[in-house]
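Re: Re: ligand-bound prediction request (bumping)

Still looking for help on this. To restate: I need the protein modeled with pyridoxal-5'-phosphate bound, output as structure tokens. Inputs repeated here so nobody has to scroll up.
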Amino acid sequence: MQGQVGTAQILFTRGVPALEALPTTLLSECMQSVLEGPDGKTILQYGNYGGYLPLRTMLGEQYRVAPEQIIVGNGSLHLQDLLTALLVKPGDVVLTEQPSYDRAIQTFRRRGAKVIGIPLEADGVNLAKLEEAIIQKKPAFLYVIPDFQNPAGVTTSAAKRQALVDLVERYDFWLVEDVPYRTLRYSGESLPLLRDLNPARTLTLSSYSKLISPALRVGYLIGPGDLVKRLIKLMEETILAPVLPTQAAVVEFHKRGYFDSNLENLKQLYAPRLQAIIAALKTYLPGVPFAEPEGGFFVSINLPEEIDCSNLLARAQAIGLTLTNGKDFFADPLDEHENTAHLGEHFVRLPFCALTPDQIEEGVKRLATLVR
Ligand SMILES: Cc1ncc(COP(=O)(O)O)c(C=O)c1O
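Reply:
Sorry for the wait, this slipped through. Here it is.
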């Protein structure tokens, strides 16, 4: 099997969709249809500042909220950044899971936030540590990725979801849930969104990047109407208008039934890749614990403490394995005196969707040779 993979470099780096998963023909049909359709000139003009209204309406039906509670922007990271600009003053605290999405940590810091990570366990954040941090730091918001977390692959349990919304209610701050992987469930049953448990205090972010294509730059935020209104004003002042042609293409993609068939194709493609990485980790790195996700893009491991990981990336590169620096996924710890020099050094994120099962097996096998 490994003969087919040979000695080519294996990239366990970015969480990107597989190239073969990008629906070029279907999208091309949708783009042509919307540009030639009755809204063709509307979507080529400035306007629709909160996003293409038919898309906001469609999402409103899906999430059972008014279109005014939805802003559709140029990807969800962009909306995360605008939201932070609105909610955070320099020096304010933002809480995240520890580890968390590296770009979110960067975005919050760039807006002047002090980002504090709350240890993530197999079923969600450590609640005692979270409450301690809330009491000490009075955060502007808590940012969580409750489904198939990036980077750890963890899904927050039903009990912890309830506990999170209870804490938010008790201590009065925003809960930001980021759910771009939620729909990519390969087995098992979905748990409620945090929004379903407490719509008044939850801001939901999601995206079509992993469900159709990242380059469409179509992401959205759902929240209370007055906050969404302020965000729309900020977006208009920042970028004038979001990219309407791709938003219209997304609506057309749904209307033609392509969304559902494409989602099914994605699951058919990715589910065996998830199985391959779980099997490879159990075979080649037995005893190294990891959360086994039922969907999404990521599995991650913590290498045993006794292993010297100081130049892991360079050693991996030398044997044909490209890894991301585990430290990037770690925010500041709550305890300011904690030694952070080695934080994240043993953490390895393994995005599996853009690799074939053979590449995954070979990649994990190479990783295992480094830690023996
Ligand atoms: C948790 C999370 N949020 C947001 C994003 C960014 O999504 P978008 O392409 O919609 O900006 C990603 C992309 O990897 C992600 O993993």
